[in-house]
Amino acid sequence: MNKAVLMLGGNPLNYGIYCKWKKKGYMVYVADWNEQPAVRGDRHFQADVKDAEKILFLLEKEGLPDRLEQVYSSMDAAVVSAAYLSRAAGLNTISDEGLKRAVSKSEMTQKWEADGLLNRLSFRRKTYDESLFELNADMKLIVKPDNAASSRGITVLYKNSPKKQCRQAFQKAVREASNRTAVIEEFVEGTEYTAEMLGDVSGNVCVYGISEKSHTKNTTDNRIAVRLHYGCTPPGTLEKIAHFAVKCYQSLGFSACFGHLELILKEDGQMSPIEIGARSSGFIASDLTDIVSGADYLGDLCKVQHGLELKEGMHQQTGRAGVYFFYDFPAGFRIGTEHHLMEYMDQSISSRYYDRSGIVQGRCFQAVENDSQRTGYEILEGPKERLTQQYVLECEKKMMYEMTV
């Protein structure tokens, strides 16, 4: 029988993972609580991704996990289940120490602070008190749930925000956190990056790709990414970020798992980690890291889980760039004529996957509140000298101008 793989969560952004697995000849199982998830795989289990014991029971009824080659999820909420099910299949996976820190933003920041990596104020609270308001009088803050996903429950508090707004930000974060805990942090200004890593059981960590991250301005007080541009970072900065990212991964005791690190490079050259997931997001893991590294990121995770040792440091990079581009329209913007980004790009650039279903004539947009409200996407690939940040912005501007006609 075919070797099998398991996806926890049938999110549409995981479609690239499914396609990559099918090209390798795998039988793809998908666990998702929805009756009709966007990605169903070859066999769908209707189960909550957090209910690892139920999923294991369903797998055993299928003659698994003996044939299970890999377990994947793009969701922070499913990291514990992925580790549990990987261990049941006899695969190498994240350590207990790393798992504890992966599921709690406060646990990870405390460890980074202890290891001299944090470089910003960070603490957690279960109950609100006026110290949050008093601290906000001195600095800009970000308030977020201790454990949540999809940018839910996050509020940026600009300096001297009203008391009511401070309290509401705290309450929103607590509501979204399963442990009813909010994390309050100094809002650090600078350029935000992501680093896509993979570690082995011996402690070696390889950085496959680094992106520069851009956020929408079309939200109220949240931080929602709309572009991750891989292959645009100068070599010196690339190496500096990679070296720091490896330290952040190793500090938490991660092993035999992906690491999706978000960090800020301050104007003074200091770096500060924001958070890290012991996973990688769909099209990042299936395509974007491969574009810039020339490697098989998802395949290498499978090899690590079966015992492969990695070469530590920055993976060799190609001359290609990749962009996770989300369509991003301001509140009140109305589509007069339907257009998409690829109409404005030259032929050296292609889109591996896209979703343009939300670009409909007459549609009027509202401000987005979390990741799931983003309109659609393009997974772009092209030569790095052509597919630059400036070029993407110019094409987007032309597109939006002609959409108003």
Q: Key terms for this structure?
A:
17 strands, 405 residues, 9-stranded mixed beta sheet
Radius of gyration (CA) equals 21 Å
Largest sheet: 9 strands, mixed
Structural class: alpha+beta
Distance between the termini: 56 Å
Element order, helices and strands?
EHEEHEHHHEHEEHEEEEHEEHHEEEEH
**Judging from the principal axes of the Cα atoms, what is the shape?**
globular
What is the percent of helical residues? 25-40%
Mean pLDDT: 93
Provide a count of the helices.
11
What does this protein structure show overall?
This protein is an alpha+beta fold and 405 residues long. Helix content is 29%, strand content 25%. The protein has 11 helices and 17 strands. Helix 1 (15-23) crosses helix 9 and helix 2 (52-61) packs parallel to helix 3. The mean pLDDT is 93.
Reconstruct the topology from this structure.
Elements: E1 4-8, H1 15-23, E2 27-32, E3 43-46, H2 52-61, E4 68-72, H3 79-88, H4 96-102, H5 105-114, E5 122-125, H6 131-136, E6 141-145, E7 155-157, H7 163-176, E8 182-186, E9 191-199, E10 205-215, E11 225-230, H8 235-251, E12 258-265, E13 271-277, H9 282-293, H10 297-305, E14 313-314, E15 320-326, E16 350-355, E17 377-383, H11 389-403
Parallel strand pairs: 1-2, 1-4, 2-3, 10-14
Antiparallel strand pairs: 5-8, 6-7, 6-8, 9-10, 9-12, 10-11, 11-15, 12-13, 15-17, 16-17
Helix pairs in contact: 1-9, 2-3
Sum this structure up briefly.
The protein is of the alpha+beta class and 405 residues long.
